[in-house]
Design a protein that fits this description.
The protein is mainly α and 436 residues long. It contains 21 helices and two strands. The chain is 74% helix and 1% strand. Strands 1-2 form a two-stranded antiparallel sheet. Helix 1 packs across helix 5, helix 9 (169-194) packs antiparallel against helix 15 (272-302) and helix 15 packs across helix 16.
Length: 436
């Protein structure tokens, strides 16, 4: 008796070309004609001005006093009556601009808009995956140990407040010592972080593994059991659409995994690590100037005789602290006491030490980017996730990913163009070589 060949899921598919592209509803001419570029331009202009003013006023110096000094005398009323000018601008927005309130939301959340919209948009325009990975590394490092950072920022701000707003020498001394301790911790953590593999890069394989094994991803990849075990020789159009959606989603995940591993290999061989390492030290240098300015100001408030200074303006302490990092003299302010000299000498040692550490870090990063075993293991593990997904799909779809792509081409599925685009970004034989 002749044995009947068992039908596979591919034999049961509805043969009419399945259109998985979403229908475009409505006409472009029916879209709202409101020009949001007005909101963006006004929000950006006023956002930059507003946040520079806030940061300067709160953390640096008296911005109002500085504006009165720098600007011509006729502009003094504008500074003094800025609240009424603000009301006038609000009224003009209300009369001239539709949805004027969006401008204020844009200004209020401007720092977040810069981080989560403007910077990613710039990265997208450059169309560089290396730059994209670098930005993700910076953002992930910002949110790493976020609770600790919030605590340290809170302690720092209270330290600044105690140094400037209280007259008790005991309180000022305590605040200055706390700021010095926070600065020391920040220096140690920055140096330590610059000599280790970024956590974001090390744990990417774990992130991918958790996603692929999540219920959400599995539902997108696995074919419904009722469809798979159907006794009918032909699936309906709707069932065929569901199957092809599962297949193309699985193939897309497979291609993205290998694409990501390939980009990490390029990232490891690139100079992005140099740039990010340099930025971390630039940021530390700026923190040094700010912290030392408040510490020196605290020393001055405890014992004014420690300095010879021409003015009590805080900008003099910023200038002095900036020069003290390299033991440079400034005629505007001189250390004349034991405590101020100790702070100055310590500042100079830290300044030159950081230059030496930065130089060593660049040498280390150059070697690490090629020989970093942790990053090598992460890339290897990501490829292993791709191989496991390949086996999983072969069991589920009865074909390899390459065969699945060829079958999807026959049905002209919606995600096929994206799958082919990602595949074209990989070197020839990259997947097959990685599977060996």
């Amino acid at each position: 008796m002749k044995k009947t060949k068992e039908l596979t899921i591919w034999d049961k598919l509805y043969f009419e070309e399945v259109d998985l592209k979403p229908e475009v509803q409505g006409n472009a001419s029916n879209r709202a004609t409101f020009n949001y570029k007005i909101i963006e331009r006004l929000g950006t202009a006023f956002g930059v001005i507003f946040w520079i003013y806030v940061v300067t006023q709160v953390f640096v110096l008296d911005a109002d006093g500085l504006l009165k000094t720098v600007l011509p005398k006729f502009s003094t009323p504008f500074v003094e009556y800025k609240f009424f000018i603000f009301l006038l601008i609000t009224t003009l927005f209300l009369v001239v601009i539709k949805k004027y309130y969006l401008v204020y939301f844009y200004i209020l959340f401007f720092p977040l808009i810069v981080i989560f919209w403007k910077i990613p948009n710039i990265v997208y325009k450059f169309k560089s995956w290396l730059l994209f990975l670098g930005v993700i590394e910076v953002i992930s490092s910002f949110f790493q140990e976020f609770k600790y950072k919030i605590v340290m920022v809170t302690i720092t701000l209270f330290g600044f407040l105690l140094v400037t707003a209280f007259n008790s020498k005991l309180i000022i001394s305590f605040a200055s010592l706390v700021l010095a301790l926070v600065l020391l911790i920040s220096i140690i953590r920055t140096i330590y972080s610059s000599f280790r593999t970024p956590i974001f890069l090390k744990f990417q394989s774990e992130i991918i593994k958790k996603f692929i094994r999540s219920d959400f991803a599995q539902k997108l990849i696995y074919i419904d059991k009722k469809i798979k075990t159907s006794k009918y020789k032909r699936l309906t159009k709707e069932q065929s659409t569901t199957v092809l959606t599962n297949v193309q989603t699985g193939v897309l995940f497979h291609r993205i995994i290998y694409f990501w591993a390939y980009q990490l290999e390029k990232y490891r061989a690139s100079k992005v690590s140099f740039i990010l390492s340099g930025f971390s030290y630039i940021w530390l240098y700026l923190k040094l100037v700010v912290f030392l300015s408040f510490i020196n100001y605290g020393v001055y408030r405890i014992a004014p005789s420690e300095f010879v200074i021409g003015s009590k303006s805080f900008i003099y302490f910023v200038n002095y602290s900036l020069n003290s990092l390299f033991l440079n003299e400034t005629s505007l302010m001189l250390a004349s006491g034991n405590i101020s000299l100790i702070v100055r000498i310590t500042s100079g040692i830290i300044g030159y030490l950081l230059i030496a550490v930065l130089f060593l870090n660049f040498i280390y990063v150059a070697k690490q980017s090629k020989d970093d075993q942790e990053l090598t293991n992460a890339i290897r593990d990501i490829k292993e996730q791709g191989r496991e997904l390949e086996k999983q799909m072969k069991n589920e779809y009865s074909v390899t990913t390459e065969e699945a792509v060829r079958k999807l081409q026959a049905f002209k599925t919606g995600l096929l163009s994206l799958i082919l685009l990602i595949s074209s970004k990989l070197p020839d034989g990259y997947i097959s070589q990685s599977d060996q």
